[in-house]
Amino acid sequence: MTARALINVPKKAKRGDVIEIKTLISHVMETGFRTGTNGNMIPRDIITSFACTYNGEMIFETQLFPAIAANPFVTFYTVATESGTLAFRWIGDNGFEVTQEAKIAVE
Amino acid sequence: MVIIGFAIFATARAAEILLSERRSGYELMSRDSKAMQDDDTSNPASLSVLDGESMWSAKTGSAGKSCADCHGDAEASMRGVAARYPAFSAARGRPIDIEQRINLCRTEKQNATPLAFESRELLAITAYLGKQSRGQPVAVAADEKTKPFIETGRQIYARRQGQLNLSCQNCHDDNAGQKLAGVELPQGHPTGYPLYRLEWQSIGSLQRRLRNCMIGMRAEPYAYGSDENVDLELFLMWRARGMTVETPAVRP
After folding, report:
1. Which of the residues A103, B134, B207, B211 has the least number of beta carbons within 10 Å of its own beta carbon?
2. B51 vs A1: CB contact, 8 Å cut-off?
3. Is-above-0.80 flag for pTM?
């Protein structure tokens, strides 16, 4: 099964409003410091970065590290300036890459 | 510590919790954990529910049938179903839990291989079914067929076992609400399974939780899908009768 992402962006906002954006993605976030049943190290498999653009402009970016729990939940705020698209991108180990978009209407 | 512990349990009353005084483990959680469960977009168990939703309509097995081919729209056909499980199966001659019911459908109707307990797929489809009963009251049958198994479950619940010589009852009836290693002991009502446990960093079944407790008691855990586990599940659901299903819940 592929990675699932859940995004919560208000569908509508007034211009100048501060809006909360919540994102949740399914990922094991394997630290690379744990041993498996056979005593071998389980290789690291984490999301390394997450970014959000608002009509092409970067509004939020973060790096993720092994201490972050499975299924990272990232929430942040921005100012609703104009109608358009919020694009989200998660990048991780082993070629992990997920992109999603959400529309917002600003009045 | 051992002496204190013994003293608490020795003076404990072995009475059942009054129906009106039953409380879901939800009420013991922090504000943050409650908020996580209340908002589907921040509840990590929702990711499993979404997986289950796509499994529902995916054809599988050599019969080439999906769940939806027989059962239609899960939101209508599966409403309240998980709240009635474990339920008596005429084919097995004993109660089966929802995971076993799903696997029965897979082997008999879809000609597919049964899913392993705690596999990502089985948890996903169970969570999806459980979600359809959210808000409904727990309503397992307590009739002539199931009563002997509820009774067996009750006996397992009351039986002291393991190196610590504890029964489920010692913590979850007699000392519920008291502290165990700084954590408040819940009454142990399984209203939200499968649920996302922060400690597990994943979604897990009631049987996983039961086995966890058994290991904590330093007792031999019952095998996944064993009669003992299902009887215990049935008793616990009967004990939580009328309480609201929270599936998929979040717990610390």
Report:
1. A103
2. yes
3. yes
